[in-house]
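[Discussion] Sanity-checking designs against the backbone

I'm trying to build intuition for which residues belong where. Below is a structure token string of 140 positions. I'd appreciate it if someone posts a full sequence so I can compare it with mine line by line.
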């Protein structure tokens, strides 16, 4: 039986190189537009096998020790539109942290640009004052 043989390989103490163990779970890896047809066919076969394996486990009411990422579940359920930057933490924590740092740098930059705009506005108003300290109108 396929499920028994597959389970024996999964539950061995020594991790095999052909199996993946990820703390963040398994998630879909996008294929490039120029991916070869043979590669796509091979990946489809793996997904088909995985689907059959999971269906068989459900029918036999067996628990499968196979974790998928939250992003994968959203993808399977057709909820891609709900994905955002916060979901990246479930795939790659380091990449997520780098994006958050970059986001904070952009926020600081925007704040500085806004402050600089106000400073320039104040500076321009000061230049418009005449000798007798009367405010001159700056017409656009």
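Best answer:
Here's mine. Compare freely.
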């Amino acid at each position: 039986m396929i499920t028994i043989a597959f389970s024996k390989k999964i539950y061995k103490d020594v991790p095999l190189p052909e199996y993946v163990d990820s703390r963040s779970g398994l998630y879909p890896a996008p294929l490039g537009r120029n991916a070869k047809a043979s590669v796509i066919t091979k990946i489809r076969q793996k997904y088909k096998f995985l689907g059959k394996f999971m269906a068989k486990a459900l029918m036999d009411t067996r628990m499968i020790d196979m974790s998928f990422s939250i992003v994968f579940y959203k993808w399977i359920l057709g909820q891609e539109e709900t994905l955002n930057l916060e979901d990246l933490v479930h795939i790659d924590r380091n990449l997520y942290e780098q994006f958050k740092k970059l986001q904070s740098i952009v926020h600081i930059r925007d704040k500085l640009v806004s402050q600089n705009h106000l400073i320039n506005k104040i500076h321009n108003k000061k230049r418009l004052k005449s000798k007798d300290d009367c405010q001159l109108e700056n017409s656009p």
